[in-house]
Amino acid sequence: MTMDSAIKALLFDVFGTVVDWRGGVAREVGPFLSRHNMAVDATEFADAWRREYSPAMEEIRSGRRSFVRLDVLHKENLVKVLRSFGIDADSVTAAELDELNLAWHRLDPWPDSVEGLLRLKRQFIIAPLSNGNIRLMVDMAKRAALPWDAILGAEVVRAYKPSPQVYADTTEILGLSPSQVCMVAAHNGDLAAARQCGLKTAFVLRPVEHGPDQQSDLRAEQPWDYEAADLNDLATQLGCPT
Amino acid sequence: MTMDSAIKALLFDVFGTVVDWRGGVAREVGPFLSRHNMAVDATEFADAWRREYSPAMEEIRSGRRSFVRLDVLHKENLVKVLRSFGIDADSVTAAELDELNLAWHRLDPWPDSVEGLLRLKRQFIIAPLSNGNIRLMVDMAKRAALPWDAILGAEVVRAYKPSPQVYADTTEILGLSPSQVCMVAAHNGDLAAARQCGLKTAFVLRPVEHGPDQQSDLRAEQPWDYEAADLNDLATQLGCPT
């Protein structure tokens, strides 16, 4: 530990901040729905799947359930969502369900993400601090060329954001003081939780994460340490050469 | 899980297999010894420091002590070794001790390591499965351009090799069956433990890890799945183009 409060590491929310989960999941869900003659909009299906995300993690955050990785929650949620659209999950083979569940491993980065991360990586330790599990983050990074220095996040600390433990334990793993770590996210709630733990905060605007009619996270709701239009802009603000 | 037993991920021992710990530590210890007018050979000091490595971890493997990361053990061992050479650790500032302890974060790769890993990375998930902690591995990788897909190892599973839990839990994190994972190491003992857990095994000869008079690990002591002269040779044997 040192009293130096200059940023040494940047931790990134991933779903929505670095990659477009909605477009990616819809792209993978579309052919599945067609194959099964399901008259459901793929984007609507993606939104429904995502709506189960936070309640499923809340079971673990609250202590009512032991930690399981996000792949497991995504799979349970998928079965629920199929049912909600009147589809019997038993009519789909296990292999096909598993394959569809991997949609979350194959999300595309926003156009600025790879370039921004490459610039930031030259000056800082960069790692995801996502609720996604390690294998999910590895598959995504290999496919999309996300140049992480390490895969940190929920599975390493066995807790889900925004539990304070996630930010605190990750900072401790990095051997840094909280003020040497900056949380980067498109979500005010994530940044608020990080700030509570003493981390620096960077808001990145992702105005179409939830589609053209997005209502949430369209502006910084607190004066965060940095507010950026995208990851390239953040790199510029942090003094990283192009 | 699938019955496909083709290798999907390669896990690497790091100290000795990917990097030259002895040369690197001696290089960092040298100036420290000179500064303090200590008539001790830097390589002898490195060897003495490394001799404390396994006994320190054994306290944790045996359950006599809770898990602490390797940086902590290295620091305790450093104080012991200084004392064994007649040097009072209290005569050295805390900052200087901490800095010297970071020698393990600044080890150079063997000449074939980076090229070999880059070739292997195109075809497999590659990650360290080292007893080194996450920050140590991150610092080393950034300095030496080791292109890991993730940082796995002792700190993620909170146990030290060769405890079976390390290999088993890491395989589970990767969502793979043991036969889809190959342990790569210059140490027969590491490979034997991995094989006990069902992993595939690749022996890499590092005949001067312990210097010119090395007696151990000069040959494969079991018929491992692969035996390679270096990481480039392993990449070739595994069908990775140059």
Automatic annotation (TrEMBL), chains A, B:
Keyword Hydrolase attributed: yes
Any Pfam family the entry gives: Hydrolase
InterPro entries recorded: 2-HAD (IPR006328), HAD-like_sf (IPR036412), HAD-SF_hydro_IA (IPR006439), HAD_sf (IPR023214), S-2-haloacid_dehalogenase (IPR051540)
Keywords carried by this UniProt record: Hydrolase
Protein known as: Haloacid dehalogenase type II
Species of provenance: Paraburkholderia strydomiana
